[in-house]
Amino acid sequence: MVQRKADVEPGIVTAPRLNQGLQGASGEAVREWNRRLLLNLIRRRQPVSRAELARLSGLQRSTVSLIVEELVSQRWVVEASTGRLPRGRRPTFLRLNDKRAAMVVDIRPTRITVALADIHGRFLSQELLPTPREPDAAIEELCRRLRRLLDSHPDMTIEGVAISLPGRFDPLSGRLVFAPNLKWPPCDLRAPIEQMTGLQVWLENAANACALAEAWYGEHRGVRDLVVVTVSEGIGTGLLLNGELVTGQNHMAGEFGHVALEPDGPLCGCGRRGCWETLASNRAALRYYGEGAPEQGPSFQDLLALCEQGDPLAVRAIDRMAAYLGRGLRMIVAGLAPEVIVIVGELTRCWQRFEPVLKAEIAAQTLAGAAPRLAPAQDGATARLRGAVALIFQKYFGPPLPA
């Protein structure tokens, strides 16, 4: 079967390709692939009828009906409205069950967000708390709030807890092992929260979470080579290459923020000097402003506002930050050649000032062909949380992009 380009959805592998890749596999394995295929189609096209699912997937209608009935009985899918046709039987439309939900946590150096989101990535509840200095206190408070959130939504089927981290963790033990901006010692985040909530806990680096958010909910769904750069207290990069999230050895891939651009530059939280994030992060911009400003400096949001108002010191600080951010992007362009680079952070408020600088650096580093597209994240404030939601549900839907 030849499938028209318009029928191939990002995040969905067509049935013929799936089955070709499973030659020699058990019938149960093929059935699981087909189940994930239909789940993804429903997610992308909802509300959608069984007949449309058969057309889009290339599966027999009888196969679609059997799998859909299973998904309905397992409460992944619900029957929605009934369609109207000029003649014949009215189709019943299907959609994902919005009573399926995930609890998600975004840990940052100054604040923690705890939220409940449904399967569509819509937030049903959010609350903020200051980040405790000690991890034990943070874990205790997180357990209390997650337990309260769980108890207050008895009508929801909560699939688990996902935590976005400003650092790196051991995927086997669940221990935080590298978080220089958070300033916590190595600690076990997974076990105590699992024990308290009774739910499985997933951890992910914040930049990787943002890459997942872009793949699942963003404007660049279907892009196979994408890099997300998060700019806040530090700089992180999430890598989606050839349709797969790249984590590397020890889950440490993407630490471009700790590549030294100036060996004699400012001291970084990682212990080295002149790392990219010491030169192009929010903290770096505040430091540039402080070099010629009063001792009591502004917040980064204040600095952006001053820049918009034309304050010369703020303009100089933001322009210097932009120049170093663009210089670091050259590493990404030369080493990874992504199709799209998405920038996440408060700086996108002044995108008109950053964009020409960053585009010029990217164009200068592109050796052949088209330069990578550059875009600000559309949901930067919630990208880490949405990525945490995707982290949980991708376990059931399969990879967000074709393998």
How would you describe this structure to a colleague?
This protein is α/β, with parallel strands linked by helices and 403 residues long. The chain folds into three domains: 5-96, Orthogonal Bundle (Arc Repressor Mutant, subunit A); 100-210 and 385-397, ATPase, nucleotide binding domain (Nucleotidyltransferase, domain 5, 2-Layer Sandwich), CATH 3.30.420; 222-378, ATPase, nucleotide binding domain (Nucleotidyltransferase, domain 5, 2-Layer Sandwich), CATH 3.30.420. The chain contains 13 helices and 16 strands. The strands form four sheets. The chain has a five-stranded mixed sheet, sandwiched between helices. A hairpin with a 5-residue loop joins strand 8 and strand 9. It is globular and about 70 Å long.
What does the secondary structure layout of this molecule look like, with pairings?
Blueprint: H1 15-21, H2 27-45, E1 48-49, H3 50-57, H4 61-73, E2 77-82, E3 92-96, E4 100-107, E5 111-118, E6 123-130, H5 135-151, E7 157-165, E8 168-169, E9 175-178, E10 187-188, H6 190-197, E11 201-205, H7 206-217, E12 226-231, E13 235-241, E14 244-245, H8 276-280, H9 282-290, H10 300-308, H11 312-336, E15 340-345, H12 351-365, E16 373-376, H13 383-397
Parallel strand pairs: 4-7, 7-11, 12-15, 15-16
Antiparallel strand pairs: 1-3, 2-3, 4-5, 5-6, 8-9, 9-10, 12-13, 13-14
What characteristics describe this protein?
403 residues; alpha/beta; Arc Repressor Mutant, subunit A; Nucleotidyltransferase, domain 5; 3 domains; five-stranded mixed β-sheet; globular; disordered N terminus
